[in-house]
Amino acid sequence: MKTTLFFFIIPFVLSSRIEKDDLIFDSVPTEAKSKFAMIDDVKLLANGLLQLGHGLKDFVHKTKVQINDIFQKLNIFDKSFYELSEQTNEIKEEEEQLKKTASKLQVNNEELKNMSQEINSKVENLLQDKIQLQYKIQDLEGRLSKLLQDQPRIPKPEEVSFLKNFVEQQDNNIKQLLQIVQEQHEQLDQQHNQIRNLKEKLSNISSQENRRNSSSTKKLLSKLLSPFSHNSTTKAYEEDGISNDCNDISIGGEQTSGIYSIKPNGSEIFNVYCEFTPERAWTVIQRRIDGCLDFNQTWDSYVNGFGDPNGEFWLGLERLSAITQQADYIMQIELEDWRANKRYIEYTFSLGNRETDYSLYLSQTSGNIPNAMGKQKEIRFATKDHNTADRDAQCSESYSGGWWYTGCNGTNLNGKYMKPRWRGKPEKRGGLLWKPAKGRFYSVKSTKMMIRPTDLDIFD
């Protein structure tokens, strides 16, 4: 770069010198002309070199900063790669140990099978011997009875008593062998279960290893490539291996509740909050905690969703419809009143699409609180700016928040958040309400709505 600037300045200096020489030659003596021209040339050259020095100094400083950033990122990558390699080696060692254990169990299983076959064959032989002995005993008893009838005082033959003792011993031996066979069968069942569990662990370990390596590699690539490339590269990595719902994520090995990305039924990728329990994997679709989020939203907001999945939020009708179109689902509604009493209710349900105003069809299955939703009836969703032809849906104009209204002054878990009045009396025209068809209504402090697939797939 120095050479380029130097050659760029030299012609300019020479040209200016020639022009000045021509002018000076006309008016000034020759010696004075040459002195002035040389001084001007030196000044121009000095200014050019000074500017060149400043430019080179800035360039060197920026280059050093960029090189330091690159070295820091390379160090981070090396540390992360080293940690990943250690984790991979540990997983491989565990996998090898499990494989060895599985192979040993399979060998023991084969040996137990052979022993069981031998014992079964011996038992069959003993049973045949027993049958033959019983025939002989019956024959001898018949002869003995005849002899006793002919000579009642003749003592009992020793052969018959010996045979009876022998048969009793054989019966005892057969019973012991049968117990041994039963114990062998139980051991075989245990071995089969252990082998099955080991195979499941191996598959889970391999899937977790692949998932962990892929996610860690994605994060590292996104960090390293972010200064040099566009976000499209990272997005291409994220779209691989997206689950359909939280239950699918749980099957993949995840058991920590939190936010995950899903792509149900060919829809766009979006984030959901997954709540994992030892028995179930739930996809949370609504949560109210303390009223920090205004649920008096428009139709478009309820269709697309709003809020923070870690706090108060509404997942969105379009996303909920995409999830429930995949299979049969169960909805669980958890309620907590102002005295910290918690109740729940579960429904089997189906949800329509935008053309049917996301109509809801419910059927109660279980719970410890009375039903306050429409049963065996399609209920259309309504908001303040999107009412349906149903008279009950006009309630959204009087009561804030979008909901599947079944009657004014009824259930509304998306209403305006209001604390109880004096002496704990709830507001009848506001707040989170749960109103069964019979009995009093409940003022709710917090709510949580979750869905999961039904267990009907176990019959497939």
From TrEMBL:
CDD domains recorded: FReD
Signal peptide: 1-15
Annotated GO biological process: blood coagulation, common pathway; fibrinolysis; platelet aggregation; positive regulation of heterotypic cell-cell adhesion
Domain of life (superkingdom): Eukaryota
UniProt keywords, alphabetically: Coiled coil, Disulfide bond, Glycoprotein, Secreted, Signal
Coiled coil: 84-208
Entries under InterPro entries matching the protein: FIB_ANG-like, Fibrinogen-like_C, Fibrinogen_a/b/g_C_1, Fibrinogen_a/b/g_C_dom
UniProt domain Fibrinogen C-terminal: residue ranges: 237-455
Pfam family, one: Fibrinogen_C
One GO cellular component term noted in the UniProt record for this chain: fibrinogen complex
One annotated GO molecular function: protein-macromolecule adaptor activity
Cellular location(s): Secreted
Name under which the protein is recorded: Angiopoietin-related protein 3
Lineage start: Eukaryota, Metazoa, Chordata, Craniata, Vertebrata
Gene giving rise to this polypeptide: ANGPTL3
